[in-house]
Design goal:
It is elongated, with a radius of gyration of 41 Å. A five-stranded antiparallel sheet has the order 5-8-7-6-9. Helix content is 20%, strand content 24%. 17% of the residues are buried. The chain has 225 residues and is an alpha+beta fold. The chain has three helices and nine strands; from the N terminus they run E-E-H-E-E-H-E-E-E-E-H-E. Among the domains are: 63 residues, Type Iii Antifreeze Protein Isoform Hplc 12 (Alpha-Beta Complex), CATH 3.90.1210.10; 87 residues, Beta Barrel (Elongation Factor Tu (Ef-tu), domain 3), CATH 2.40.30.
Length: 225
């Protein structure tokens, strides 16, 4: 750093004027500037490499899972067109259904109402709804208010209680209405009047009686064990 004092001519009768010291700083040598730029560039390259590695690692941990392509009402069979496949990052504890199980899902019934765009989980699928040995399938039209429709799901155990016909005397207290145990297979959509058709599996010995009582049956949902 250099400091110069230069005398300047002064008016007659005045002493010489002296310019104030002015600090003159030398510019950063070119070599040092290049070294700084190289360090900054190296840091930026390293940060970019770390970001790319993170993205590649996340992409590598993705897995194909099933997602609902359409709304599926409760009790309805799931078709091939109701499902689509998406790739999601692997998250421990996230309940999903692998895309490889698609063929096993198609044909199963929805245990709850399935919404378009939601992930499909095994808990949303009804249990085996096929008839078991000694069972027969009966369609029961349930009048509005005669069944807990919103709580009925395929596979639920139920009691079918026959109600008296119009004008028919109520059974004595000791006799009670006729009851039959059954299992929900499907739950239809409510009609404009609020009536719902519920398909139930009952024992072969009870199927004829349940069919004859159709239209005046109340459904009681059994407690889940």
């Amino acid at each position: 750093m250099k400091s110069n004092r230069t005398a300047v001519a002064a008016p007659p009768g005045a002493g010489p004027l002296v310019r104030p010291d002015v600090e003159i700083s030398d510019p950063l040598p070119p070599r040092r500037r290049r070294r700084s730029f190289m360090v900054i560039g190296g840091v930026m390259v390293l940060a970019g490499a770390i970001g790319v590695a993170g993205l590649l690692n996340a992409a590598g941990n993705r897995s194909d899972v099933l997602v609902l392509a359409h709304d599926v009402p409760v009790g309805q069979k799931i078709g091939t067109g109701d499902l689509r496949v998406v790739a999601l990052p692997h998250e421990p504890g996230l309940a999903t259904t692998p895309a490889a199980q698609r063929s096993a899902v198609v044909g199963r019934r929805a245990a709850v109402a399935l919404n378009e765009g939601s992930l499909l989980t095994k808990r949303q699928l009804a249990g085996d709804s096929t008839l078991r040995s000694g069972e027969e399938l009966v369609a029961v039209e349930v009048k509005r208010g005669m069944a807990p429709v919103d709580a009925l799901h395929p596979g639920d155990g139920i009691r079918l209680v026959t109600t008296p016909r119009d004008g028919e005397a109520v059974p004595d207290k000791g006799a009670g209405p006729r009851e039959v145990s059954g299992r929900v297979v499907t739950v239809g959509r409510p009609s404009t009047s609020g009536d719902v058709v519920v398909q139930v599996a009952v024992a072969q010995a009870d199927s004829s009686g349940v069919a004859a009582d159709a239209g005046r049956i109340a459904i009681v949902l059994k407690a889940k064990s």
